[in-house]
Write a structure and sequence with these properties.
Blueprint (H helix, E strand, L loop, with lengths): L8 H6 L6 H16 L14 E2 L13 E2 L3 H14 L2 H7 L2 H14 L2 H10 L1 H4 L23
Helix pairs in contact: 2-6
């Protein structure tokens, strides 16, 4: 047995070390997201307001229509589209200006792989990484705003 500590393939891949089974998987996973990217953020011409209903290939369970006026729904839509959408979905459902505005918070809600791929490809997103994330909106209780008898 060697007295030199061995790192797992996953740890080596994260550190940029030799490619093992985990390193290859991680590179393929990153490549999957990289190939979906638009060539420029200005290609993101999705709606900035209204209700968005992504196809079943993007959202296949749970909430199917997202009100962009609702902070939680807007963030949920963007998080889902970044994780599941193909290039066409990204361009049709995401809005350039909204993505830039949401990124400081959105970047902590998506996987490190998605975040890394997007920030490597688009320096304008990387530049937003140091801005503080917005506080999540407070959950409304069902009885709030109701008349008290």
């Amino acid at each position: 047995m060697s007295s030199v500590p061995q790192r797992s393939a996953f740890a080596q891949a994260r550190a940029g070390g030799p490619a093992g089974p985990g390193g290859t998987d991680l590179r393929l996973y990153r490549e999957k997201f990289r190939r979906r990217l638009p060539s420029d953020l200005l290609e993101l011409r999705g709606p900035a307001e209204g209700v968005v209903e992504p196809s079943a290939t993007v959202v296949w369970s749970g909430l199917r229509a997202f009100d962009l006026g609702n902070e939680r729904q807007r963030m949920s839509l963007y998080r889902t589209v970044l994780a599941e959408g193909m290039r066409e979905d990204l361009c049709a459902l995401l809005n350039h200006d909204l993505l830039l505005r949401l990124w400081p918070t959105l970047r902590i809600l998506v996987s490190t792989t998605v975040r890394g791929v997007w920030e490597e490809a688009f320096p304008e997103l990387r530049a937003l990484a140091d801005l503080p994330a917005a506080q999540p909106p407070a959950r409304r209780r069902p009885h709030e705003g109701a008349a008290v008898a």
